[in-house]
Write a structure and sequence with these properties.
The chain has about 350 residues and is of the alpha/beta class. The protein has 2 domains: about 250 residues, Aldolase class I (TIM Barrel, Alpha-Beta Barrel); about 90 residues, no CATH class. Helices cover about 40% and strands about 15% of the residues. The strands form 3 sheets. It has an 8-stranded parallel barrel with strand order 3-4-5-6-7-8-10-11, surrounded by 6 helices. A 3-stranded antiparallel sheet has the order 9-13-12, with no helix packed on it. It has a two-stranded antiparallel sheet with strand order 1-2. It is globular and about 50 Å long. The N and C termini lie close together (about 5 Å). The protein binds flavin mononucleotide.
């Protein structure tokens, strides 16, 4: 059976698959544009989006602000009628400014996690940009939707649930990941029930998308059976020709074995899922001195004196230098992938 389109306000998502935002430099205009062109939702990661811009070393903020417009234009030129948006983490330094810039350039959607995007509605007020929080628990969904209803008399346009098998930062405790995996299906049902309350209150649909470890069509069908409208996937999109990461990064994915996938500590204060390499070995025993601060995280998320390493530096290393010497985030199912594909082929495989 074909997957059915999902309405997100006045937008229609032809295939209910969101390509999750991947920073730094993994989901930019080419990947997001290609996914949107093929019926999914393409998400550009805002995390140090301007890392390739000539201004970046002098002023990361200015480079990022310019790159938001440039990347969005290119993605939209690939997918004129497709849905393209941005992932902006709440922990980002100058979060509000980046959100406003994405709205200014005409982003179709903004998805925000790594914290609760409590103020997001006021930052997009008066625009057509649709907004979605990323939550990992019923409690977070309740707090967020209740606050938006009370403060702004509105609700989410859609919602992403990120489970414990996702790549990148995880909204769970280090020692609670295994238990969370066992309990996640139940949590998904509870979150779907919370969104139903608000969709009745505001007389609108709030489609829910599940993220984390979704690998194939049977996984998608499983989450649809729990009440989700679709899924958000990231890891599988890395190993496509169109993904913006370099070849060596994609090869690291292709060579990953099950035992190479580790939970690491991140300066953000959350655990993260990544592929084991020289870098993950080093941080087990050593602090890596920070060469230069490029102001990626707000001050309450990064204590520059005590962090074990600089997250920007290590994410940049893996895409600009060598994936063995930097942080390579990946979802729990990365070991199952053993060949490159293209976005049209992957979308076809998942949707038909
Ligand atoms: C390489 C990589 C980078 C990521 N970067 C971000 C990010 O910048 N912001 C964010 O909210 N999520 C990020 N994620 C999480 C994904 O958007 C997505 O929700 C998650 O990986 C889904 O699980 P999957 O990879 O198993 O499909 C990242 C994931 C990966 C694999």
């Amino acid at each position: 059976m074909k997957l059915t389109p999902v309405a997100i306000g006045d937008l229609s998502l032809e295939i209910p698959i969101i390509q999750g935002g991947m920073g730094i430099g993994v989901s930019l205009s080419r990947l997001a544009g290609s996914v949107a062109k093929n019926g999914g939702m393409g998400i550009i990661s805002c995390a140090q989006i301007g890392f390739n811009h000539p201004l970046f070393e002098r002023s990361p903020y200015k480079a990022n602000m310019k790159a938001i417009e440039e990347q969005y234009k290119v993605a939209k030129s690939i997918a004129k009628d497709g849905i393209v948006g941005f992932n902006i983490m709440c922990a980002t330094f100058k979060y509000e400014k980046y959100v406003k810039r994405c709205v200014e350039v005409g982003a179709d959607v903004i998805i925000s996690g790594a914290g609760l995007p409590i103020h997001l509605p006021e930052l997009v007020a008066g625009s057509k940009t649709k907004i979605a929080p990323i939550v990992s628990s019923e409690k977070a969904a309740k707090v967020l939707l209740r606050t938006w209803a009370k403060r702004y008399n509105r609700t989410a346009d859609f919602l992403v649930i990120e489970g414990p098998e996702a790549g990148g930062h995880l909204g769970f405790k280090y020692d609670g990941i295994e238990t969370a995996i066992e309990k996640m299906d139940n949590e998904v049902k509870k979150i779907v029930a919370v969104t139903k309350e608000y969709s009745e209150k505001f007389k609108c649909e709030i489609p829910v998308f599940f993220a984390g470890g979704v690998y194939d069509r049977s996984d998608i069908d499983h989450y649809l059976s729990l009440g989700c409208a679709g899924v958000q996937m990231a890891t599988r999109f890395v190993v496509t020709e169109e993904c913006d990461a370099p070849k060596a990064y994609k090869e690291r994915y292709l060579n990953a074995r099950k035992e190479d996938i580790k939970i690491i500590k991140s300066p953000v204060g959350m655990p993260g899922r990544a592929i084991e390499n020289e870098f993950t070995e080093t941080i087990k025993t050593k602090q890596i001195p920070i060469e230069k601060c490029r102001s990626c995280l707000s001050f309450d998320h990064c204590d520059r004196k005590t962090i074990p390493y600089c997250i920007t530096e290590m994410l940049l290393n893996s895409v600009t230098k060598n994936p063995d010497c930097g942080l390579v985030f990946a979802g729990s199912n990365v070991f199952k992938i053993n060949e490159m594909t293209t976005v049209p082929n992957l979308m076809k495989e998942l949707s038909e």
